[in-house]
Amino acid sequence: MTRDVTTVLRFPQPCTEAGTKMLGWEGRFEPVQCAGKRVLIEPIQKLEPTDRFLLVVRLADGTEVPFTVSGTNWKDGEWPDQQVNVIFETDDPDVLRKKLEASEEREKEIREEVRVESYTGSSENHALAALLTQGAVRFTPFVTRKAWIFKNGDSNISATVLTDGKEKVAVLFRVTNRDPSNFESPLFVGEARPFALRKHRSVTPPYS
After folding, report:
1. Which residues is 57 bridged to in the sheet?
2. Is 161 helix (H, G, I), strand (E, B) or coil?
3. Rounded Cα distance, 10 and 1, in Å
4. Cα–Cα dist 54/68, whole Å
5. How far is CA 64 from the centre of its chain?
6. Looking at the DSSP assignment, which residues form a beta bridge with residue 33?
7. pTM exceeding 0.70
8. Please, which contacts does 143-150 make with residues 24 or more away whose CB atoms are closer than 8 Å?
9. Phi/psi of residue 206, each to 5°?
10. From CA 57, how far away is CA 67, in angstroms rounded?
11. Which residues pair with 56 in a beta bridge?
């Protein structure tokens, strides 16, 4: 928990004010409040991860639910959960729906991680492409098959087709801006920036 941030415990039934209490809360928390099916907890001082407070919530049917409240050292960009749903019946339709939503969200995160990894990191093809952009052709199985140079008043563009003699083809472009006034920012003047892009196509037209 974090100072001045209210955490809400939400239960499937109302709680009772009389039976809900926290031990040792004085001076560290606002008084614990019951609001229908919700219990509100708000620290007024910084809590350390080693701090422990016993909270007991009594529900309308007499059930008492114990909790241990502690602090956390949050890192930059992290934020505590402000509502915690407390559920007792794991086969409840609402529980199953929330589990499905959580699984779908995690699947999206994994797909995004895989997509980013495939374009930025560890695949063999991308490693080869990165070597080519750095001019380290000798460390790859590729050899040059054909090359072109296109020139105009402001820039030079060279295009090189390389193959490994088996199944891989690479096209390497080098673009040189000969007019610094074309840059949007003077910070980029004279700075070479290697870039690798992988593109999948079922058919590649022949070149002449």
Report:
1. 65
2. strand
3. 16
4. 5
5. 38
6. 40
7. no
8. 146/207
9. -65, 150
10. 8
11. 21, 66
The encoded tokens of residue 27 equal 């001076």
Would you state the structure tokens that stand for residue 1, as one six-digit string?
Answer: 């928990």
Identity of residue 43: P
Structure tokens at 120: 């930025």
Tokens for 95, please give them.
Answer: 């529980």
Residue at token pair 């080869």: 128
Q: Please give the chain's pLDDT, 208 residues, in tens.
A: 677 688 899 998 999 988 899 988 888 889 999 989 999 998 888 888 888 899 999 999 998 999 988 877 666 556 666 788 887 766 667 767 777 787 788 788 887 777 766 655 556 777 788 888 888 888 899 999 999 988 877 778 889 999 988 888 888 888 887 776 655 444 444 455 555 555 544 444 554 4
**13, 87 Cβ separation under 8 angstroms:** no
